[in-house]
Structure formats: structure tokens, C-alpha cells
Amino acid sequence: MKKTILSFLLTGMLVSSSFAQLPKFVTSVEGIKEYSLPNGLKILLIPDAAQSNVVVNIVYNVGSRNEGYGETGMAHLLEHMLFKRSSKFSEIKKAIADKGAEANGTTFYDRTNYYEILPATDENLTWALDMEADRMITSAILQSDLDKEFSVVRNEFEIGENNPSGILRERVFSSAYLWHNYGNSTIGSKEDIERVKASSLKNFYKKYYQPNNATLIVGGKFDEKKTLDLIAKYFAMIPKSKQIIEPTYTVEPAQDGERFIELKRNGDMQYVAMAYHTPSFSDKENAANTALISILTNNPSGALYKALIETKFATNVYGYSITLKDPGLGYFACEIPKDKDLKTAQDAFLQTMNEVPKMSFTEDDLKRAKNELLKQFENTYNKTIDLSIALTEDIAAGDWRLFFIDRDNVEKLTVADIQNVAKKYYLQSNRTWGRFVPENNAERVKVSDTPDIAVLTNGYKGKTLEANKATFETSVANILKTTEMGKLASGGQYALLEKPSKGDKINARFLLRMGDEKSLEGKSLIANLTAQMLKLGTKTRTKKDINDQLDQYKTTINVQGNVDGLYIGLNTDKNNLNNALVLLKDILRNPIFDASEFEKLKLEMKSGLEANKSEPQALVSEAIEKQTALYPKSHPYYSQTSDEKLAELSTITLDDIKKYYNDFYNGNSSKIAFVGGLDKKIIKTFLTETFDNWNTKFTYTRIPTQYFEVNAFNNTIQVNDKTNAIVLGKVNLNIGMNEPDYPAVEIANELLGGGAFMSSRIPKRLREAEGMSYGAGSFVSGNGIDKNGDWGVYAFFNPLFKDKLDSALKEEIQKASDKGFTKEEFDAVVKSWLQQRQTTLGTDEFLARQLREYLDQNKSFKEYSDYENKVKALDAAKVNAAMKKYFDLQKFVLIYAGDFTKK
């Protein structure tokens, strides 16, 4: 009887919500509309008709700053627990996986958020809103679940402990903050993580997970009225909490002298890092501080770059400030190779930073920094799905409109603003980097309090926004109909897919094939270096000019080369398309191959290779390749060890790079795809001028990949003083994507370890059931032309679990081979897999990459739907047969790396 009455009351609440409790409009800024519910829930709608996906992101104003004594890591641990179960969803991870959603939860200093990205349908949006509303107030938080999950979180902690630069950052932060919780890492103390009780976690949950402490964001393609009705249906019934969340009041006092810490751990790279107390994100001076950091670290014009990289004292220097509600830190770090003198780099770093308050900055410095920062804003703003998630940080800092206010502040910056923050905050007495130095009459820095954000944002409207009402049907048939295919006189091929995109953004992918098996022998490292040299200067532009123009034109160009060819990614917009392509043409056709830049590049590569020699993940990847890819040393695809690469690197000269470029680079075998708000006339002119009449000494002949018969092999690599271990396994497959069995092999992998959101057997066993691993799963790949591929597994884990994990991993593989998968498992995975592919099809980056790949394989985009139809024709029996046939433990190469000496 009680249950009936409760159901009736809840039904009444739902019905009334659609009338009396509809969200109330609050304000609108540049296409983002804010609403609120009577229970205090804030709502942001970010419609984008050009999208084919929708994202639901809910932000709770609780993070590590809200944790008390003995509670470090509680906010993050609670984030993990909210993926367990609630009243309507008994297995939340499975529910997410079944929908094929791209989903995650993240925790930081001031906030926790959860999001799901799905194809834009009413069903998917309803499901996501229903789930987020349900787990807001009915998550179970059971001790039995916590007992398993704490070891998963501990393993995540241990993964971070393997990163020397990351741990150094934590130590600098903890030394810089004496009292404020920003000095505690978000992941928390291992001891606190292991000891927290479910009852304490539940109290924390009840206090902070309430509608009046949350902001719900819906972005992408959706019907606004229907969405508001759905939000009212699922969230309006949740009562406003009676528990008052008191604001935190700790203020970090002015620092009373320089502080120093030293960290000693295993590694092959040296680091120096330092931090200065700086204003909160909402403070007007934050924009000037961010611009100053950009000016100091700019490659190649920054003072730190010149002091550390130009001199070859270090191989990398960078800086940033984090978006925080309270005053934060300006953070800088540099990497120094093991064979370089640490003190020399350290002194140069400190001396340069000591000079910052006295430095004079120019209009060119300011323009360069503003271009970089405004490009970052535009790139975020014009990607609605990314924007919907990125606003998490602005909400946490006090208000979502800070995203636009910060942009406005950047646009208004003057050189005087830069000079002011340099003099005000970058004092030696305000620095934490290492050594504590007593100093009489030390200067003190008083960082401004966080402004009254309500006053700051009151009535703010932002810029006038031009609505984008164009839509695009994301289907294979429409992509085929809309894409223009063409061939250049040189033989190159292109695909142009014009479609609406926010901000008329354009994604392009290029592939330049070159050479043959004989001519490319021993050229792998040279190919890599040649590609990296392209952006380091041309006959008409210095590296500085190139970097400045990339920011000015809001353009990104990525270049990567190997013996397979030259791969290029370009992101720009319609207004800057011509300038971007002129710049790309210059980079491709007129590289200068500067000797100084070449030596710096070699030094950077040398440092990276040396660092890999003590990293478990790099060591196990290298070992597995040497055991399974058995190409002879004379073959272009030969797998070099780090030592072999270091030896070869020392012999490569600038003349080798120039010769490789002149002998191999050409436009004859180019494969090119553009997607987005295109200007086809500009693109075609660029393609003709750049890739026609660009010939090569060696005609391109494709180098086929090979299948190697490899028997089972097990090995363990001991790496001292590493708190996290990794295992990587692989089986070579005598099957490619064109083979009839391959779809069944892919779905078998999805079921075993590759499925969405940890829904498959390996992660469910190793992470969910036994808590041994933060990340575990399997993968499969098949060549699109040749008859070969590979299947493999991976897991990150505490070294103490090695034997237990080894047994569990092999047991799950053997069990799947012997008994197969159920029809229910098969049906759920196929549904999720298809949904994931539909989501992926809605991203322009993927479309450009896939169009280029199909050009290279001489396939039509129809291949995408044809492959899906092959999967739809499968059944559990066919998948089980493929599992038994191809995932053979007698051919399983399994290699572990980590510190296995500790007990």
C-alpha cells in the first residue's frame, strides 16, 4: 500500500513538473542560454544544428578543495562510485556501454563532472537525462563496491606516481600552499583512499550532490522545447536540499620567502619546475598573467626558450596557469637530458625568471600572445561538444560567463597590463621551486581576493552571435552524395566534403606516399626527422613567423613522417583557409632545414629515447614489437630498439635530411581530404599549385605488410622504483579487414576486452570484480589491404598483483575460447558498437581521416556501411567460432614490465 501511494505521489510530481516547474529563462550569451529550476538547478543549453551528436554534462561544485582532514581523494573516489549503481540503473557502466556512449567522469580542485556523448536522438537524450537525475540522489555507495573500487583508484594513483614531472608538480603545489586545499592532489593520499568508509563517502555525497549545487549542460543537436520538458520531468521532482553548503573560507597568506623541494626517483630525464602565486581566474589580471606566461615560453621568441632551448641547456620548457576559483599558481617547468648539467640549466632558468619584473615587453609580444589565446578560445567555442565539457572549468571558477569575460579581457590587454603583472607577482619571494633561502626584509605579494562574480557577470551579454541553422544528415548515403572526388594532373587524389560546421571550421588530412622497399631501407628515423623539420623554417618564413601566423590565422598544422609516408593534419576555418593553405604550401615546398634547429631537434629526440629506457610502458611496447614484428634489419618496417635509434641518431646529418626530402617528397601519390565549411575554388587552386609538378627520384611502390608465425612467449622486464606495472600481450593474425572472418574477430574482441566503457569481460574481471587494474582491455587491428593483423591485451596494475592478474587474464581468454559468449552479450555489444560508429561518423575529424584512408586503399566510403552490414549479419555462434580460431594462447606473446622485487 505504501509503495502504491509513493508511486502515485511521484507520478503527481512528474505531471506537475511539466506545468508548474518548467525551467525559467535567466540569461543568454552568444548562443548559450541559461535556465533554472525552483530547486536551484542551473541549466545551460548550447544548440548547434550542424552537429549530429548531443552531449549531457552535469557539473557539481565539489572537488578536492571541499575535502576535510582524512578525506583527501574523497571527491575523486565518489566520482568512481557514481558509475556503480542507482535506483533505476543497477549497472551504470553497462548501461553506458549498451548505449555506445562516449562517457566519463572527472574530478578537479573545484568541481566534479559527468558527461555522455551520443548520436542526437530523443531516445538518447532522454536516457542520459534520466540517468544523471537518478544518480544525483539515489546512488547506492555500498561498502562491497567500495572495497573493490578503492584498489582501482589506488592503481590510478600509482600510475601517476610513475611520472616524475607530474610528481614534481604535486610537490611544488603542496609546498606553495601551506593552508589552502589546492596544495593537495585531487587523487588524494593513498592512505586516505584505502581507509575511507562507505558511510563517510555517502555523507559527502548527500551533502554536495544536490540540484542547488549543480549545473546541467546540454549541447549539440536537440529540440530546445522538448529538452526543457525532459529536464523538468527528470530533475524538477528532486527537492532542494535543506543542508546548507557553507563556502570555504581559507585564504592562503602572502608567501614569506622562496621555497625549495627536491624529489629523487628513478628516471632518465631531469626537471626543474617553479610556481608563483597569481590571481584567480575571475580576476581581471588573470588574462594578463596568462599572456605573460605565453610570452615567456613562446617557441622561439620567449625569454625562457632562448635561455634554455637555444642554448641547448634543456630540451623543453613550458608554462601554464590553471582555471581556479581562488588565487592559483603560474607554473613553469623544463626538461634537461641526463647527460646535461642540471645546475647550468637550473641557474639559467632562475636567472631568467629573476629578470621578469624588470623585462620590457613589446606590442609584438602582446600580439603574439593574444593571437595564441584567442585561437584557443575560438577552437573551443566552435566545437560545441568540446565547449559543453570545457565550460565545466568556468562554472567551477564561479560562473560559465567567465569563459567570455576572460576572452574580452584578453582582447583589451595592453603592454602596460603585462608589465604590471610581471612586476607584481614574479618576485623571488613569491616563488616555490626548491631551496629555502632565508631573506631579511623580503617583499610580500598580496594576491587580490576573488571578485564578486555576481556583480561581474550581472547583465553581461557578450558578443552578437550569428545563428547557424544549417543541418547535415550524417549518413553514409548522404556523405557519398555530398563528397566531390577528384584527381590531380600529378596523379594525386582528393575528396571534398562540404558540410555545415560551427564557425565554418575545416578539417583536412593529407598523406604523401613515397619510395619503395629498396630505396627506403634504413630510412625510418630519417623520415621522422625530415617531417619534424618542415615546420621549423622555410625560405621565406622563420620558425617564429610560422608559429605566429598559425595563431594569427587560428590554424593548426600537424606533421608526422615515417617510411609509410608523410601525414599532415590541418584545422582552420573558412575565413582563414587561403592564408592557412599558403602557409602549408610554403612549409611543404620551401623548407630551409636550418642547422641550429636540426641540432635542437636531435637533442630533443635523444632525450625522449633516453627517458623511454626506464619507462615500463615504453619498454614493454618495444619488447612486444621485437618479438612479433620479425622484419629483417634491412626492411623499412624493421623495429628498432631505443639503443639502436640512439646509435643511428648520432650519425644522421643535416645533409641526410635534405637528401631524403629531395629524393622522396612528391605530390604524385598524394591522398587528400577536406571536410567542413569549404571554399572549393581556393582548395583546388592550392592542390594544383602544391602537388602538381612535384616529382620524385624514386617512384612510389607500396610496401606490403607481412604476417609472421610466432609461438607463445612470456617475459618480465624488471624496472626498479616504479610503483605501477604494465602487461602487454599480442597474437599475430593471418587475417586482414577484407577477409570474411574479420567482422567476427572484431566483435569477439569487443566482447572480450575492447567494448565500450569497461563493459567487456577483461575490464569487468580485472577492474570491476577484483579491483586489480585501473585500465585493462584488449584491442584488434587488421590491415585494410594485406592479409595480416594482430590481437592483443593490456593492463596497468600494482606489481604486487602480477601473479593474480596473470592467472585472471589467461582464465578469461581461455573461458571465452572454450565456452564462447552468450546471445545476450552478443546482442548488447553489437548494438553498442553500431551506436559508437554512428557517434564517430558525426565528427569532422574522423570523416576527413576516413576519406583519406579510403582514398589510400582505393575504396569508396560505402565500405563503412558495407562493413556494418557484415557485422549485422553475424550471430553469437559465428563470433564464438572466430574467437576459438584466431585468439590462440599457443601463439600468445605476453610481456610484463615494472618493479616486481617489492613485496
Task: Tell me about this structure.
This protein has 903 residues and is of the alpha+beta class. Helix content is 44%, strand content 17%. It has 33 helices and 22 strands. The strands form four sheets. It has a seven-stranded mixed β-sheet, with helices on both faces. The chain has a six-stranded mixed β-sheet with strand order 12-13-17-14-16-15, with helices on both faces. Helix 4 packs parallel to helix 9 and helix 27 packs across helix 33. The termini are far apart. The model is unreliable at 1-20 and 435-439 (pLDDT under 50).
Beta-strand percentage range: 15-25%
Counting DSSP E segments of at least 2 residues, the number of strands comes to 22
Placed side by side, the strands forming the largest sheet appear as 1-2-3-7-4-6-5
Structural class: alpha+beta
Which blocks of ≥5 consecutive residues have pLDDT under 50? 1-20, 435-439
Largest sheet entry? 7 strands, mixed
Radius of gyration, rounded? 28 Å
Q: Helix count, per DSSP?
A: 33
Q: Whole-number average pLDDT?
A: 93
The helix content, as a percent range, equals: 40-55%
Envelope shape: globular
Outline the fold blueprint.
Layout: H1 2-17, E1 24-29, E2 32-36, E3 42-47, E4 53-60, H2 74-81, H3 92-99, E5 102-107, E6 112-119, H4 122-137, H5 143-161, H6 164-176, H7 190-195, H8 198-208, E7 214-220, H9 224-235, E8 269-278, H10 285-297, H11 303-310, E9 316-321, E10 328-337, H12 342-354, H13 363-381, H14 384-397, H15 402-411, H16 415-425, E11 431-432, H17 453-457, H18 476-482, E12 483-487, E13 493-498, E14 505-512, H19 524-533, H20 543-552, E15 556-562, E16 565-573, H21 577-589, H22 595-612, H23 616-628, H24 642-649, H25 654-664, E17 670-676, H26 680-691, E18 713-718, E19 725-733, H27 742-754, H28 761-769, E20 773-782, E21 789-797, H29 802-819, H30 823-841, H31 844-856, H32 862-872, H33 876-886, E22 893-898
Parallel strand pairs: 3-7, 13-17, 18-22
Antiparallel strand pairs: 1-2, 2-3, 4-6, 4-7, 5-6, 8-10, 8-11, 9-10, 12-13, 14-16, 14-17, 15-16, 19-21, 19-22, 20-21
Helix pairs in contact: 2-8, 4-9, 10-13, 10-15, 10-16, 11-12, 13-15, 13-20, 19-25, 21-26, 22-24, 27-33, 28-29, 29-33
